[in-house]
Amino acid sequence: MNTPTTIGSYVFAFVIVVVIGVVIGRMLRGWKRRAKRQLDLLSELPSMPDLLGAATVAPTRGLYVGSTLAPNWLERIAAGDLGFRSKAVLTRYPEGILLERSGATPIWIPQDSISAIRTERGLAGKVVPSVRNKADSPAGILAIRWRLPSGTEIDTGFRGDDRRDYARWTTTGEAA
User: Any idea where the PH domain is (predicted)?
Assistant: First the structure.
């Protein structure tokens, strides 16, 4: 039966579907435009050296949160695959830091380009509150500030499975 109520419901559902489609399309267009703007700033990521020394900080498992243009913790980098979260392993070597991401290319951060390693409550739209009633609990995200070969400074965020591991990174992780 085609009652006015049924027809009105179908029209309303169609309008809702169209509005959702338009909103998603606008979001995707904005993401692509951001990536296009950022390609000029980022150029190429540093390549990994052929030989690495022994690890100075043991591998730390966790989640790659994303990278942002420093100092704005909300300006997520959309170019390439830097904007996508993924499981990762972070390892420190005398030559730099290797961030191996599952399903994405690894990120090599040369030692001479690192300016700071610190803990933060939030980065790239991800906020991790510290543990309540514990003043000495570390913030939720390990942030590495470093300079790309193009001269652009970025922050790379990593959320470790165990926040107690952050002490190894912040004490031995100061820039040389």
Answer: 43-171
Distance of CA 106 to the CA centre of its chain: 13
Phi then psi dihedrals of residue 21, to 5 deg: -60, -40
Residues forming a β-bridge with 114: 146
Instruction: Note the pLDDT of residue 122.
Output: 75
Under 8 Å between Cβ of 119 and 139: yes
Strands 107-110, 114-120: pairing kind:
unpaired
The residues that bridge with 139 in the sheet, in sequence order, are: none
- For the chain, first and last CA: distance in Å? 77
- Mean pLDDT, the chain, integer: 84
At residue 26, φ and ψ (nearest 5 deg) are -65, -40
169-172 LR contacts (CB < 8 Å, sep 24+): 169/57, 169/60, 169/90, 169/92, 169/117, 169/142, 170/117, 170/118, 170/119, 170/142, 172/56, 172/57, 172/92
Q: How far is Cα 79 from Cα 62, in angstroms, rounded to an integer?
A: 22
Amino acid at 165: D
What does the pLDDT read at residue 88?
94
**pLDDT (0 to 100) of residue 51:** 87
